[in-house]
Amino acid sequence: MSSISSTVMEPVESGSEDSSQNFVVQSPLICGLPDDIALFCIARVPRKYHALLKCVSKRWRELLCSEGWHSYRRKHNLNETWIYAFCRDKFEQLSCYVLDPNLSKRCWKRVQGIPPCSLKRKGMGFEVLGKKVYLLGGCGWVEDATDEVYCYDATMNTWSEAAPLSTARCYFACEVLDEKIYAIGGLGSNSSDPHSWDTYDPHTNSWRSHSDPNVVPDIEDSIVFDGKIYIRCGSAVSSHAVVYEPSNGTWQHADADMVSGWRGPAVVVDGTLYVLDQSSGTRLMMWQKDRREWVAVGRLSPLLTRPPCQLVAIEENIFVIGKGLSTVVLDVGNAGHVGGVMVSSSVPKITSDDDVISCKLVAA
Ligand SMILES: *[C@@H]1O[C@H](CO)[C@@H](O)[C@H](O)[C@H]1NC(C)=O
Ligand SMILES: *[C@@H]1O[C@H](CO)[C@@H](O)[C@H](O)[C@H]1NC(C)=O
C-alpha cells in the first residue's frame, strides 16, 4: 500500500510526524477499497470538480490540499493548467480571475480573498512555484516599496503571508528559473544597492541577495528564454537588455538583434520566442534564432483583441489576454502561414474595462 498512500499522507514540511501511524488509524478514503486504489481513482477526476471533492469528507479535503496529491497528479501527468490573471479596475483595485481552458464553455471566474493591503499596491511582482502564486513587493501612493510577499495556494484556495524579500522592491522584474523566484532591480525604499537582485528558494523558504553592476533599477520587461533570464531595462529612449547566465551567476549584455524586436509582451512556445507587437494593431512576431531575425507570424483581428495584452502559452496555444479579460487563443502549431489574419478562437469577455497586468499558469 504503501508507497503511494504514505506519499499522500506526508505533509511536506512535517518531517517529524509519523504519517504511517496517522494512516492506520484513519478511515479509508473509499469504503472497501485500499487507499492506493482509491487515490488512483480520485486523482483522475478533472480539476474542475476538485472543489466539490473537498466537500466529501475531512479526509478527502486533507487529501486534495496535500502536497502529495499535487505531486501524484504531476507525476502521472494528470495535472491541468489553469490561467490566473491579475487585473486593475478603474478604481485602481487589484483583482484576480481564473480560467479553465479545457472547459467547452470557457469563462473567467473571480478569485476572492486578495490580502487587503495588496489591493492598492502597484509595481508588484507575480510568480508561480508549484501550486502557489506569489504576490511580491510593490508600493503605493503614500507607501514606500515593501518587502512583503503573499502567496495564494491554488489547490487550497487560501492566501497567506510568505517569507519577505531581502530587499523592498517596486516595479521590478520577477521570473522563475530552476525552481527559484528571482526578484530583480526595481525601485526600493532603501536603495543602498541599486544593482541588486534576490532569489527565493522554496525548500529553505528564504531569500538571498546578490549584486551585479549590469543590473539597473529601471526595469521594463523580463522573460525566461533558453534557460536564461532576459530583462529589458533603461528608459524608452535608450532601451537595452541584459541576460542572466545561470552557469556563472553573472549578467551580460544581450544581443541587440534579438532585443530590437522585443517590443511587447513575450512568450516562449516550444523553445521559440514570440512577441506581440501592439504598436499598430496587434501582430504576432517570432524570433528565428538560427537566422537571427524577427518574422511576422500574422495579424490578429482587431475585433477580438483589446490591447494592452498579456501572453501565456499552454502547449502550442498562445492565449492573448487584453482589456476586460478579452481572450484570444492562437494555435501556433497550426498557424502555418506567415502574414494575413490569424485564425483564432476566443473566450466570451466579462463586462469590464479592467487592465490585465499579469497572467500566470498553475498546473494542479
Ligand atoms: C529602511 O531603512 C530604515 C533605516 O535605515 C529601516 O528602519 C527600515 O526598516 C528599512 N526598510 C526596509 C523595507 O528595509
Ligand atoms: C559567464 O558566462 C558567459 C557566457 O558563457 C561569459 O560570456 C562570461 O564571460 C562569463 N563571466 C564570467 C565572469 O565568468
TrEMBL record:
Keywords: Kelch repeat, Repeat. Residues 109-306 form the FKB95-like N-terminal Kelch domain. Residues 1-20 are annotated as: Disordered. SMART domains: Kelch. Pfam families: F-box, Kelch_FKB95. The keyword Repeat applies. Gene3D superfamilies: Kelch-type beta propeller. It comes from the Eukaryota. InterPro entries: F-box-like_dom_sf, F-box_dom, Kelch-typ_b-propeller, Kelch_1, Kelch_FKB95. Residues 30-67 form the F-box domain. This is Uncharacterized protein. It comes from Nyssa sinensis.
